[in-house]
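Hello forum,

I keep getting stuck at the same step: I have a sequence, I want structure tokens, and every attempt I make locally crashes halfway through. Rather than fight my setup again tonight, could one of you with a working pipeline run this one for me? It's a single chain of 627 residues.
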Amino acid sequence: MEAILHKDGPAMVLAGPGSGKTFVIVQRLKSLIEGCSVDPSSILVITFTKAAAIEMQQRFLKITDSSYPEVCFGTFHSVFYHIVRSSTPTRKLKIINEKDKYRIIKDIVLGIAAKSNSSDKQEFTDAIDQAGDIISEISRVKNTGESLDSNHDNIPLSRFFEKIYKEYNQMLRELDLIDFDDMLIICYEELLSKKNLLDTWSERFKYVLIDEYQDINSIQYKVVSLLCKTNNLFVVGDDDQSIYGFRGSDPGIMQSFSEDYKEYEPKVINLNVNYRCGKDILDAALETIKENKCRLQKDLEADVSNGRGRVYARKYVNKDQQNKAIASFLKNDPDKIEKIAFIFRTNSEAMALASVLRSEGISTNLDSYVKSFTDSPAVKLCENYLRFIYDGKKRELFLKIMNNPCRYISRSALESEVVTEAMLRKYYSGNADKIREIDKLFRQLNMISHMRPALSVRFLRKEIGIDKLFPGEMKALDELSDLSKRMQDNMQLLKEIDRVRDSSFTMESKSRNKTKGKCVKLLTMHGSKGLEFDIVWLPGLNEGIIPSRSAVTSAQIEEERRMLYVGMTRAKSALIMSYITGNEENPMLPTRFIRPIRHLWEDNYSSSPSKPSSGSSISSSNSTSSR
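Reply #2:
Ran it on my machine without issues. Output:
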């Protein structure tokens, strides 16, 4: 009640997972208006996502019978956008979309590669495939104000980062575009330089509430500090759930709240009862997160109505064994399909399990995406190029590629069932332009035949021009690129495409029949935030996956541990945690993060966590009730 009834002055609510923070926020809004006679139009509620803002607004309107629509709910970006627009109403603010961001970064990388003297062009190809990491780093630098001279070793082409950063921003200016990070910077600069603008907005909002405060970055913090002149700042969050460092989020800002507002005697209120997790699940999660050094101390406990819950420790020799155990678990108890979620560190792990489960007739929330990947006309064209090269240079396959993109090659030039360069040169004898076109095509096909799968797909997309032919198929082509990286050669890639396509079609009715419309949820740790499930399985808890190999600094390692904590605290009644041991020739290490709870594996297997499991672990791990 202390948080709900708080009126004036700064206050920070430490809200652990499942502690009912949204309830507290909407009830406090009601208390301010109906209990303290605060003008509803003077209240600003800021969230980090549009969905969260809408949900919170709807819950508030429901408990107040829609009596106070004047309360302002919005995201940081939407609020800042309105401030900037009010400053200069005639100013046009065009926000670049994510697709065009990727396009600009790829063009910049290609330009650097063309001018580079490096003999290893693969790093530039890899950088293009990881353009998202470069975009995230640009965003992080803008949001934190970090110097371009700082260490950026966690991204590809780090030595060129300053050049990429400057060329990216120059391109935005030339196109008269800004990104969302620019919006924050522009808003801050406008408020600093225009006193009337600052006075207008700071006088309008007397009470500011911020949800998920652990995710705030420095530029957002600066703007809020300018706006909230009354210091009636009410923030809610959990620094143990701060997992967006790649966007510039800094849990240190939340951790410094009491110090920053000490002259106003800020209140720190703990919501220390978890209404979600069983006691054993919460205890294991708390033991894990306590290893972090930079965190606010909390005394979180499970409500007695949650029950004890159970934590099941599992280990498998390889991914195939783990996948078989997962499939068997789901088949043996179909009723659990709607109750369970599998949560991964990366999206590629989730997609890999989706493919496996689909082949077993088990539906997942990712099935439509898996199917659309192989159905994409762009993917089929890439496939046809590879099949022509590796499947006997058949006429039927050449017909599918010869004018994609258009080369104006005539069907009548194909005089036999096997197409050769000599045949086409003979047909177009005397046509120098056409012969040059044919020579170029077969030179490209020959180059592809000597490339690794990832580079082959990259070459088809960029040099042949399939990306330009199918601008609306980027997701499917990106999935093909991801798949190609896991293949040893192009023949294996073609077989894998066949396998995925077969499972997509032949297992569709089987999947529907077995699961009766139900599907398993496959999520990333980032994507699971704010959700809860009866049962959660966290597979593949190995070093190099979590923490990621790119996590080097202590701050990055602690964020990775927070991701595991988020995943663990999604579970209500059962939490299954598993890792891969590898074999004697290629041993794999469990994540260091399970060290505080390694007794769970020792009790289960009577051996250390890093010792490979016996073959019996499959059968003994099919059900959470097996131990």
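The radius of gyration is 28 Å. If your local run keeps crashing, start a new thread with the error log.
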